[in-house]
Amino acid sequence: MAASIVKRVSRVKKLNISHISARYKLLTGFRHFSTSKQWNKALVLGVYENESTDSIDFTGTARKFDEKADGKISQLLLTVKKPLKCGKTRTLHAVDPEFSSVLVTCIGKRGEGYDELETVDKGRESIRAAVAKAVLQLRELGENEIEVDSCGDTEASAEGCHLALFSYDDLKAEKSRKPTVRISCATRYSQDKNSMEKEWRKGAILAEGQNLSRRLMEMPANLLTPTKFAEIIKEQLADKCEVLVRDKDWAESMKMGSFLSVARGSVEPPVFLEIEYKGRQSDSPLALVGKGVTFDTGGISIKPSQGMDAMRGDMGGAACVAGSLLSVSKLQLPVHVKAFIPLCENMPSGSATKPGDVVTAMNGKTIQVDNTDAEGRLILADALCYSEQFNPSLILDMATLTGAIDVALGAGAAGVFTNSDDMWNKLQKASVRSGDRVWRMPLFNHYTKKITECQLADLNNIGGSRSGGACTAAAFLKEFVNNKNWLHLDIAGVMTNSGDVAYLGKGMSGRPTRTVIEFINLMSKETKN
Ligand code: BES
Ligand code: ZN
Ligand code: ZN
């Protein structure tokens, strides 16, 4: 590899006739290379934002590449007087015998890190976005092998590439091309080859988990029924985890009256998934719980038809649990995790639950179902109760629970309700690394009062008014949890991406899978899990 670069450099040197300009010398070089070979391999190089018009601030890898190329990359970049700004790219062709395109992408200012107001690591986030843009542009050019600069953070670079190249086109005749992406130059220019490749793999696995979540969320509900969800999870996880698929009879035997009251309107049978990953011996696992409503029509309290198709993603919590487990098990994290996923459809029918019906949850609490569209909390109530039986060191649930969290936070962050400052600090730390943010919300008694004021039962499944809807939903869930380390993530606002996250295409986002994986990674470093 190095030999071929040196050979090219000496060829360029032979063209070094003093009366022609440096630029012309380079152009003659181009012509020579472009006719000699058909390439389909490209290289992504990073540069930092730099005001100077006569120097380029390359990343370590890019600088070494430029040196090997006898300064050709910097010369070409400097032919244009406008310095590259963060997120902008320049594509150079035939500057190297190995690569048909060398795409230079600007990764923002050197040394950028934690931004307190944004609660995110800006450096890592800029890398993800910059390499994502680069690989998509190179795919447009028909490149099918792409080597990517680590940009000083190999993991973030791998995440950006693999997240950007995701598409759900299983049901289309025309599939989008998937160029192969790998860490660039690590083998050639870095002494630290093994650790870089390990980090690249970690980033790729983090993205793979999120991409599984996205795929499951995107799948249409006629294809992804509760039964099919369970089948896919078995396929994806069975070699690394124990997967138990419980049926309706089992749920009845567990007295999960709240969960079953949602499922009863549909012809699709409900499923309760129980998954265990045992990366270490322990009798206090981390418990993950995910809302798995494979389609939410609202039931008898039916939703308006506009935009209802998005409710195929109402199993986003379940999908993020599955995606997290995929990555945790592939990374072989030394941690014990148990996951609980209630799966059903929320449909209106002759057998559906009606507003005003009263149902009994597993812990014996009675619930007046005044709105059948507030079904997520009903299925989670039983799943949370059940998870408590396994002596978990913490319980983290994820659910596309309320439209109200979208009103409050939009796609800026997932809303987090927790009874533990320590858990909150750890989750937030994880989200700073992942770039997939969280924001803390209140669990005040104020909201509990709204759902305990109930005419017929112990609890009402709605808070009476629309005010603080995400908080009353969380207060409802709190009635089914005793654990001192409980986190509830309302992910309805981050369910889809409509362009806010630069490295995720439009559609179901799979957020906040990577935050949860990072969080589990942090927890795995604590001995008791
Ligand atoms: N699945 C919805 C919440 C949702 C809304 C998810 C938008 C994703 C995007 C949930 O089951 C629901 O319908 N909640 C109701 C609760 C209300 C009836 C108290 C809501 O938010 O309107
Ligand atoms: Zn609903
Ligand atoms: Zn729902």
From TrEMBL:
<dbReference type="InterPro" id="IPR023042">
    <property type="entry name" value="Peptidase_M17_leu_NH2_pept"/>
</dbReference>
<dbReference type="GO" id="GO:0070006">
    <property type="term" value="F:metalloaminopeptidase activity"/>
</dbReference>
<dbReference type="GO" id="GO:0030145">
    <property type="term" value="F:manganese ion binding"/>
</dbReference>
<keyword id="KW-0378">Hydrolase</keyword>
<protein>
    <recommendedName>
        <fullName>Cytosol aminopeptidase</fullName>
        <ecNumber>3.4.11.1</ecNumber>
        <ecNumber>3.4.11.5</ecNumber>
        <ecNumber>3.4.13.23</ecNumber>
    </recommendedName>
</protein>
<comment type="similarity">
    <text>Belongs to the peptidase M17 family.</text>
</comment>
<dbReference type="InterPro" id="IPR000819">
    <property type="entry name" value="Peptidase_M17_C"/>
</dbReference>
<dbReference type="InterPro" id="IPR043472">
    <property type="entry name" value="Macro_dom-like"/>
</dbReference>
<dbReference type="InterPro" id="IPR008283">
    <property type="entry name" value="Peptidase_M17_N"/>
</dbReference>
<dbReference type="Pfam" id="PF00883">
    <property type="entry name" value="Peptidase_M17"/>
</dbReference>
<dbReference type="GO" id="GO:0006508">
    <property type="term" value="P:proteolysis"/>
</dbReference>
<dbReference type="Pfam" id="PF02789">
    <property type="entry name" value="Peptidase_M17_N"/>
</dbReference>
<dbReference type="InterPro" id="IPR011356">
    <property type="entry name" value="Leucine_aapep/pepB"/>
</dbReference>
<feature type="domain" description="Cytosol aminopeptidase">
    <location>
        <begin position="371"/>
        <end position="378"/>
    </location>
</feature>
<comment type="function">
    <text>Cytosolic metallopeptidase that catalyzes the removal of unsubstituted N-terminal hydrophobic amino acids from various peptides. The presence of Zn(2+) ions is essential for the peptidase activity, and the association with other cofactors can modulate the substrate spectificity of the enzyme. For instance, in the presence of Mn(2+), it displays a specific Cys-Gly hydrolyzing activity of Cys-Gly-S-conjugates. Involved in the metabolism of glutathione and in the degradation of glutathione S-conjugates, which may play a role in the control of the cell redox status.</text>
</comment>
<keyword id="KW-0645">Protease</keyword>
<dbReference type="GO" id="GO:0005737">
    <property type="term" value="C:cytoplasm"/>
</dbReference>
<keyword id="KW-0031">Aminopeptidase</keyword>
